[in-house]
């Protein structure tokens, strides 16, 4: 046998032992023998570096040090999940599904593992990269660290596709967490708070050999890629298992929402015996064609739903309430609590939302209250322990003036929130608005942070976001902790933001209720700020998905003399107030007012591309055929029932080329 063959054989053997031990939990060799063989392979590889392989089992021990993790754009976006909390939430979800899907829907129920999500890419059976979720569009390249996790296969077995991404969760089982903490305590270090944060922190350790020492596990649940011949979620889990992945066998196929609910009830109890944390169940439509028809919202797939288990609850004393003023002037009461441990973290504050909620709960200072922690970071007050209420306690009186600028608060009819109407003179509003303006999803001004904004306002250097564009280096240098270099970065960051496209500028303005998606819609519809600024409530509500609340807020915004003045300054500063030529060229209104159903498979375009083409040209995609549908874009392999229905409803059929001609 040549050296190369010996190396290959050892790699192969160790890979198998590893899989048997970590994934199948069924070792066929002693630890000692395993270590011997690993050592032998390491020595051989070191002596013959020409046969080294980035995916050899010897790479598990780590060693690579990453100073800065490279940012990588995901080939396929990593979405979030919508949440539900009751059986009726799930039933509502199913009713929504049935608007798009005719016939039966089966579901796969999986546990929702509480860790750090990861997307791992395999090409020709070899692990090529592993990227954290990040913001869903791009994440950090943590490949070296992921390779040290024994349940992540470096090479696959069986009949796998040439290229795909697999998604899963990196978790730190309780036992390993405890062990890690005991070691830390022994070294006099602070113990870690909870397994989830420790797992995600581990992925960002610079030294991969440190990661190798942590008993992390990778649980996989989703395969993503182009042209994969897979029909269902159920099948994809089986396939992934066959290729050597660690797919928990707790997943179950359910044929009705009732069965889904049985699964949830069963696991709400049984999960307490699992070696790692779970915070719910993820329910997924099983059939991948159905999934495709359902598609995604801006944040999450429509075909999946997380069910959150009831959270842990403790009681503690409400010591006081403080009122915060947000960037829109909204007042948020915050409860200050006697510190208490809840689900692994120390809780000192809870949000109370608004006056109505305080009234409804009849919360009083000094009360003993029940606090619960769901998925959100800030815990909630659920109720008051009336048995412990002091006799002399008095009802809480909500504030009537702004805690910052003392202006009398207002509350619009039908709204729960109180507002401070002092738009231009209330400091937290002024600061909050500028902080929103510079934030990453808005103008993304490099070199300028929230604290500096506060400082600039407090020092009287700026009083609105347009003032940023008149700032001079000499003005900001005297600020605390402002070095020459950082002052320069700040100025050049502001300069660079002049290139930010119109839709983001619109979002950055901080018009109430105009979030990212609405800003995009408005930019696309009105093309420039002039057209938008003279639009009426009626014009606005005629735009798809714009409601009265948004429309009124937009009209209000442009009705303010001060806002118009600030906008003029921004315009003279050279910001983008018009949709770029590039975006414009992709748009037409040829299909305005028409609705389309897409069915079957197509030759020159994919279904998502078709959908985009329809929407870019002003048309609308609807889920199923009705008398209001104008066209059915019919591909190959379309079901006969669809054809009959279209015929009966007198809907015009379009072949692929006919449709493409239509928008030419
Ligand atoms: P959330 O962060 O609350 O929006 O929930 C979405 C996250 O749940 C995903 O990004 C995954 O990291 C995680 N997750 C855990 N288990 C599963 C599962 N079985 N299927 C899908 N996502 C899961
Ligand atoms: Zn105020």
Describe this structure in words.
The protein is of the alpha+beta class and 664 residues long. Among the domains are: 3-61, Helix hairpin bin (Helix Hairpins, Orthogonal Bundle), CATH 1.10.287; 104-252 and 276-288 and 295-301, DNA ligase/mRNA capping enzyme (D-amino Acid Aminotransferase, Chain A, domain 1); 427-499, DNA polymerase, domain 1 (Orthogonal Bundle); 502-585, DNA polymerase, domain 1 (Orthogonal Bundle); 595-662, BRCT domain (Rossmann fold, 3-Layer(aba) Sandwich), CATH 3.40.50. It has 25 helices and 20 strands. Helix 1 (3-22) runs antiparallel to helix 2 and helix 12 (427-438) packs across helix 13. The longest helix is centred in the first third of the chain and has 20 residues, at 3-22. The N and C termini lie far apart (64 Å). The chain binds adenosine monophosphate and zinc ion. Adenosine monophosphate binds at residues 80-81, 110, 112-113, 117, 133, 169, 221, 282, 306, 375.
């Amino acid at each position: 046998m040549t050296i190369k063959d010996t190396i290959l054989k050892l790699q192969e053997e160790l890979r198998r032992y590893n899989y048997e031990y970590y994934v199948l939990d069924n070792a066929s060799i002693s630890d000692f023998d395993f270590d011997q063989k690993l050592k032998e392979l390491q020595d051989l590889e070191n002596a013959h570096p020409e046969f080294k392989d980035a995916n050899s089992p010897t790479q598990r021990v780590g060693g690579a040090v990453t100073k800065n993790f490279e940012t990588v754009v995901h080939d396929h976006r990593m979405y979030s999940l919508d949440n539900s909390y009751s059986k009726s939430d799930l039933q509502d979800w199913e009713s929504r599904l049935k608007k798009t899907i005719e016939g039966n829907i089966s579901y796969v129920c999986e546990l929702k593992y509480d860790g750090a999500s990861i997307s791992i890419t395999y090409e020709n059976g070899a692990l090529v990269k592993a990227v954290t979720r990040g913001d869903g569009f791009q994440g950090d390249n943590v490949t070296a660290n992921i390779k040290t996790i024994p349940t992540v296969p470096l090479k696959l077995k069986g009949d796998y596709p040439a290229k795909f991404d697999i998604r899963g969760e990196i978790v730190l089982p309780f036992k390993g967490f405890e062990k890690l903490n005991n070691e830390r305590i022994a070294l006099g270090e602070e113990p870690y708070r909870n397994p989830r944060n420790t797992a995600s922190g581990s992925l960002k350790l610079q030294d991969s050999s440190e990661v190798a020492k942590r008993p992390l596990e990778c649980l996989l649940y989703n395969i993503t890629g182009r042209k994969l011949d897979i029909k269902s979620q159920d099948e994809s889990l089986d396939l992934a298992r066959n290729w050597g992945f660690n797919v928990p066998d707790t997943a179950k196929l359910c044929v009705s929402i009732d069965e889904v609910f049985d699964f949830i009830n069963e696991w709400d109890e049984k999960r307490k015996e699992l070696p790692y944390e779970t915070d719910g169940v993820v329910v997924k439509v099983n059939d991948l064609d159905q999934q495709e028809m359902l598609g995604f919202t801006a944040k999450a797939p429509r075909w999946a739903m997380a069910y959150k288990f009831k959270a842990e609850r403790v009681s503690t004393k409400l010591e006081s309430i403080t009122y915060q003023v947000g960037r829109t002037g909204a007042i948020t009461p915050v409860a200050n609590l006697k510190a208490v441990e809840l689900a692994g973290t120390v809780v000192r504050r809870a949000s109370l939302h608004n006056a109505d909620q305080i009234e409804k709960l009849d919360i009083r200072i000094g009360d003993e209250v029940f606090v619960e922690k769901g998925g959100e970071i800030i815990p909630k007050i659920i109720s008051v322990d009336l048995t412990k209420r002091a006799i002399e306690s008095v009802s809480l009186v909500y504030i009537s003036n702004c805690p910052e600028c003392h202006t009398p608060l207002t509350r619009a009819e039908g709204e729960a929130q109180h507002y401070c109407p002092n738009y231009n003179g209330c400091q937290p509003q002024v600061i909050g608005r500028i902080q929103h303006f510079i934030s990453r999803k808005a103008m993304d001004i490099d070199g300028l942070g929230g604290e500096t904004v506060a400082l600039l306002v407090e020092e009287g250097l700026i009083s609105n976001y347009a003032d940023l564009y008149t700032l001079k280096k000499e003005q900001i240098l005297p600020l605390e902790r402002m070095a020459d270099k950082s002052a320069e970065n700040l100025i050049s960051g502001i300069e660079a933001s002049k290139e930010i496209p119109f839709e983001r500028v619109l979002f950055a303005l901080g018009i109430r209720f105009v979030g990212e998606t609405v800003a995009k819609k408005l930019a696309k519809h009105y093309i420039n700020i002039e057209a938008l600024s003279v639009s009426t409530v009626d014009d606005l509500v005629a735009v798809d998905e714009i409601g009265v609340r948004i429309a009124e807020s937009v009209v209000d915004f442009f009705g303010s003399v001060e806002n118009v003045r600030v906008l003029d300054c921004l315009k003279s500063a050279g910001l983008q107030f018009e949709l770029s030529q590039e975006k414009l060229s992709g748009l037409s209104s040829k299909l305005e007012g028409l609705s389309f159903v897409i069915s079957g498979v197509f030759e020159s375009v994919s279904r998502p591309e078709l959908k985009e083409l329809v929407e870019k040209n002003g048309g609308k995609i609807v889920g199923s055929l009705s008398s209001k549908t104008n066209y059915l874009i019919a591909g190959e392999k379309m079901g006969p029932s669809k054809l009959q229905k279209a015929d009966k409803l007198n809907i015009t059929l379009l072949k692929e080329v006919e449709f493409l001609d239509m928008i030419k």
